[in-house]
Amino acid sequence: MQGKITGIDITGNQIIAVQVKTGLKGYQVLGWARVPVEDGGLNEALESLSGSTVLKSDTYFATIPGGHASFRNLQMPFKDVRKIRQALPFEMENMLPFQIEDLLIDFIMTDGPARGEVLAASCNRGFVSEYLGTLKRNGIDPDVLEIRCSPLASWLLRQPGTPEHILLLEIGEKNNTMVLCLNRRIALIRVFSSNNVPIIQSTSQENGLSDLEVPPREEVEACFNLLCANIRSTVHAFISQRNTLPDPEKLFFTGTGALSPKAEGLLSQFLDMPAEQIDMRNDKRVRIDRDVVRDWSPALMNGALSLALRNTRKEEGFNFRREEFERKKRYFGLKKAAPKVAVFIFLILSFLAADMVIDFYTLKKEYKILSREITSVFKQTLPEVTRIVDPIQQLRVKINELKQSNVSRPETGTNKMVLDLLKEISQRIPKSLNVHVNRMIIDTETVRISGKTDAFNEVDKIKNNLETSIHFSGVTISSANLDRTGKGVRFEIRIERKGIEGLRN
């Protein structure tokens, strides 16, 4: 996907937008913006962003705020993606406390299409309609409506050195999103609502806000402990139902709570696994200029940046822009590219026209050369013809005249004349003789036969029998010699024909 792309990560508390530009060497971050979502709601927050250059892009990707999507893991009886999409609403109908007609459903494969295991996400159609309406009123018509943290997990799995089985945790102000990835695929997504006030307030130490009251360490540790207990129980319940699944090897975390100076140590301690804060600036494909990187916070920007870098393949990630909410094809981009396209088409047509002109003159030149060669051949073949109008047609007429004048030749007459001659020779050679004919040459006056037989007297018998034919005026043995083995005689007989009339009789 070319041009400028803006990823808009929307939570219940804030909007974070990151704009990137695609290029041959990767992505360049052009700018970012962050506004809180306060009492005025989402529409007022988006209005405050309306003048920002970050929202002037060719393509938009947006997320659905946490808590508005519900997740279910299912085992489907078939592997075909189209069949799964058709059957999924019926499979989920008894699992949800809502009318299935009121829900919009999308899914991803969790363990490859060979096993038919899917992670389905559902969202209320009324919410999606209202949510899209708010975005469009503020000039945003996103190509994709994603689940939060799903693009970040996909980005993380593509990075070299990422383990096969990982946990991704985003610590927000009110909601925590956990993504379990097994065998380099997203296997489970859960959103926890919890009171993270102590964790968020503890970030004041990281931001240098020493005048704010920082909660006691015990409260921060208790908050992290409760969060990790929820994660442990959720992962254990999921894996215990599937005996073949491994435990996650490492935790990657981000979000506002990741700014807490105790986050990495406490998460590693309570989850009993290595923990690492995500920083997408380490991606070699991403370039951030100095004027943009000022005040950049990876923990806050990772979600929006991963959304802007989202892979556009249909089989990767969620997208609630489907059915009646499917994104209509855009044509405004063509207007922008119209001058360049017009120049390109003009150049192509110019080259084609030049090529046609060159081909015309080349063919005309070759035609004149061939015409001269044909005329030269005609003069050599028919020097008696002085008036040349159409040499090809004149040659054809002359050839037909020659064919009609040579009808008496066996090779140019009917096949019946030659067949009669062969029949006459065959009948004159006794069947008791062992004769093998190697070659027979027939012209208008003679027939020459070369072959092999057992003895010299048999050659004489062949000669004598052929002389009795009324069609031959004379038969002569041109040669008769023993072959190399000494057991046979090679011979050649010359037959003088009486003329073509003899054959016809």
> Spatial order of the strands in the main sheet?
8-4-1-2-3-14
Number of structurally distinct domains: 4
The CATH architecture category of the largest domain equals 2-Layer Sandwich
- Helical content class: 25-40%
Descriptive tags:
disordered C terminus; 6-stranded mixed β-sheet; alpha/beta; 5-stranded mixed β-sheet; 26% strand; 18 strands; Nucleotidyltransferase, domain 5; 38% helix; 505 residues; 4 domains
Explain what the structure shows.
The protein has 14 helices and 18 strands. By secondary structure, the chain is α/β, with parallel strands linked by helices. It has four domains: 194 residues, Nucleotidyltransferase, domain 5, CATH 3.30.420.380; 123 residues, 2-Layer Sandwich (Nucleotidyltransferase, domain 5); 63 residues; 90 residues, Gyrase A, domain 2, CATH 3.30.1360. Strands 8-4-1-2-3-14 form a six-stranded mixed sheet. A five-stranded mixed sheet has the order 11-10-9-12-13. Strands 15-16-18-17 form a four-stranded antiparallel sheet, with helices on one face. Helix 6 crosses helix 7.
TL;DR?
With 505 residues, this protein is α/β, with parallel strands linked by helices. It has four domains: 194 residues, Nucleotidyltransferase, domain 5; 123 residues, Nucleotidyltransferase, domain 5 (2-Layer Sandwich); 63 residues; 90 residues, General secretion pathway protein M, EpsM (Gyrase A, domain 2, 2-Layer Sandwich). It has 14 helices and 18 strands.
